[in-house]
Amino acid sequence: MSYLELIGVCKRYHAVDGEVVALHDVNLSIERGEFVVLLGHSGCGKSTLLQIVAGLELASAGGAQLDSRPITHCSAERAMIFQDPNLFPWLTAVENVAFGLRMAGYPPGERRRMAQQALARMSLGAATSLYPHELSGGMQQRVALARALVLDPAVLLMDEPLASLDALLRSRLQHEIRARCAGRTVLFVTHSIREAIVLADRVVILSPRPGHVQHDIVVEGTPPRSLTPALVHLEQEIESLMLQQEVSSLS
Amino acid sequence: MKSSARVFLLAIGLTLMMLTGCTPPQHRGPITIGVRTANDHVPFYVADRQQLYRQRGLDVTVRLVPGNTEIIEALQRGDFQIGAVPVTTAIAAIAQGIPLHIVAMTGRGSDGLLVRQQDGAADVASLRGKKIATIRASILDVLLRYTLEQAGLDPERDVELVYMAKLGDLISALKTYQVDACSNTEPFMTDAERQGWGRILTYYTADWPDHPCCVVVVRDDFARQNPRALRDILAIHCAAVEWSNEHLDETAQVITDYLQTFDPDMVRNSLDRSRMFIDYHLQTEEIERMAGLMVAQGLISSIPPADRLVDLAPLSDVLKNRP
Amino acid sequence: MSTLRSMMGAWSRLRHIHVRWRPWGSRWVLLLALAMVWELVSRLALVDPLLLPPFTGVLSRGWELSLSGRLAGDLLASAWRVLLGFALAALLANPVGIALGLYPAIEDLMSTLLSVLRPLSPPAWIPLAILWFGIGDAPAVFIIFVGTFFSLVIGTLAATKAVDSQLIKVALTMGASRWQSVCHVILPSLLPALITQVRLGLGLAWMCVIAAEMVAVRRGIGFLMIEARNLFRTEDVIVGMITIGLVGLCTDRLLIGVERVLCRWRAGLAPSQLYVRRERSP
Fold it and tell me: Which among A81, A25, A86 is positioned nearest to A54, based on CA atoms?
């Protein structure tokens, strides 16, 4: 069995006009240390799948396992970063980073030291006592990343963390994420094909709703990758696969 | 224009707009008499029911109002031209310069001390150290303090006075053992006796026989501008008082109809001569005596001049010209 | 030339002071203007002075009541009841409001009861207050409690529902338990709203004072005003109103200061600041 295993995961919701099946029979195996990117159209259930792995939602059928243990609730071993940094506005940068450590019962001195080190690794040493509203969008997202990484999670879950950033910042943070997450098991959601092929060891493409794994593509080369002709070709292939999905779902 | 100047002018404009409504207009048209729901206001109920005002060609409306202060405030605004209020309320208003004066009596007595049947005090002197509920600065308060002093008790030191807002609250507090006695009026006291839980300890008439209770007050400007109408209304008042005293059973029914509560038999008991007396006669001296009590109790600073308090002339004219 | 320069410098400094202090000036100009109009209108009998005594008359009466100690004593008596009644209401209403906000099932159960009880005005509770608590401070405190409790519950409930659920998700995925997420996310999120609730609630509590002090008290601003009304002392009534207003103003300013300290993390411009004209620099 793989390190992170999703077995027959289904998710159904009750909506105003009947039942909605968000995910249907999703099976996915992720090895320790793999950086897997989930790609798909809007509404295909990528974020829902991530929330099930995080323990924020329960699957309607099937389930997820981490290291052969079923996932039934939230835990710091499956830390999650969202599209918005979601920093706690009443805490400074260092206090935000130390939050998880505080929940785990670390003494004040030690958690402050660990948080400061985590911020320093993100080149945010000068921002420790600033409040979130005093930080730029990119700085906030880096603090969010430090906050998750300082917990040394078994799996890092990222739900479109760079979607709201500009292209330059995005590119810079892609490199930073890859650098900081080397050797860490990551499940990363994006709707950007280019981002997927730059970052991922594997790209998993979900079908339109109800989402299930349609394609699982290993990407050659060491991430973060520069755009070579081969990668551009891969990007076009993936784009064409996704267009086919769209056409099939419309018909 | 600078913003602070704009603010200043806006303030002036708004304030003037709001305050122009505060000046009572000169009265024209129908006459409104404000009365309360109480036994000694029954002459007005009788006059209204028997359409005595209309028979005299007067356009008069009798309005029932729940509170004495509201009647004075309505008189002050000009909404009412004539009112019936406790004598202490009238004196307090006149002492503050409100342009009213007293022209007739409407009731005497009817106020006293109520205790519980079961464990109530035997006499006024036994109220030493007890809690007594009353309405601050009302006639119930003034006469209670007078009666306590007559019994040798200091109202501030020898008893604990508890102030409430409504007659019903006083009854409720006594019934539920929050207080040991309450200063109250008819027909509430007879009603408590009738229900079996209350006992009338004393009427204040024991210390001041036939003390004034409620009086008829009139706006100064109305009296000046409408002397004939005032005399006609007083003539009707006198006739209604006499009718009420001669027909106590029917009077009890009228009170029950207008108050929309109580039992007619109980109300009939409360009208008994030993408890109260509906009357129109008025003496300046008794009004001044009541004002003197109010000065002694610190409710007003001085006794208003007699000619500000009372005008006996209209009532005298009416009585002179009666057949 | 140097004289001209120094005059221009002085003028520039004066204008700078004027620009900096103008907001304060405008507030007091408005109040002063209203007071002057009040005084004139009453003195010139444009309005019956019995209905609206002159402003200086009210001030003079207020001074008399202050010197005699009556005003201070009554104010302390009322302030004590207000603070106690409000504190009890807040202590109970905030956890109830948070619980209702977090548990829709409880909210469903309680919403009808809350909707029925909330519109009842404080005077409506007087008979029950006497019955349950007797006479003295207790029923007065109860009426203030009941006058503020339901509004506080509704306000806290709304604020709890408005807490950003993403922050709670973040906390849970960082290993916080449910209780920890309440203490370390929901409560700090609610702090600005709770301070606003305290400001509004204290205002409501003072509004209940007159009703509360109809019930068997012997001191208090409400009692002073009720007695003054019974004796037609309009000046005393207005003194009572101004006293309550000034207390409200001081409390409000204090709480705004507290909010600035406790919530200094609040970001950016307030909406109102986006609509003001920018001052030209002096």
Answer: A81
Whole-angstrom Cα distance, residue A232 to residue A226? 10
B98 and B217 both lie in a single domain: yes
B177 and B235 together in one domain = no
| Interchain CB distance below 8 Å, A133 and C265 | yes
| CATH label of the domain that carries residue B42 | 3.40.190.10
**Thinking of the domain C55-266, which architecture would CATH place it in?**
Orthogonal Bundle (1.10)
Q: Is the pTM of this model over 0.80?
A: no
Judge: A56–C172 Cβ closer than 8 Å, yes or no: yes
DSSP C264: T
Report the length, in residues, of chain B.
Answer: 323
- The pair of structure tokens assigned to B205 is 């008439």
Complex prediction ipTM = 0.89
Closest residue by Cα to residue A82 from A36, A147, A179: A147
The DSSP code sequence of C105-133 is HHHHHHHHHHHHHTT--GGGGHHHHHHHH
- Tell me the residue ranges of DSSP E strands in chain A: 4-15, 18-30, 35-39, 61-66, 69-70, 78-81, 155-159, 185-190, 202-206, 213-218
Lowest-pLDDT range of A180-184, A240-244, B50-54, C272-276: C272-276
Q: B8: which chain C residues are within 8 Å (Cβ-Cβ)? A: 29-30, 33
Chain-chain contact of C265 with A80 (C-beta, under 8 angstroms) = no
> Tens digit of pLDDT for each residue in B156-212?
999 999 998 888 889 988 998 989 999 999 888 999 999 999 999 999 999 999 999
pLDDT of residue C269: 52
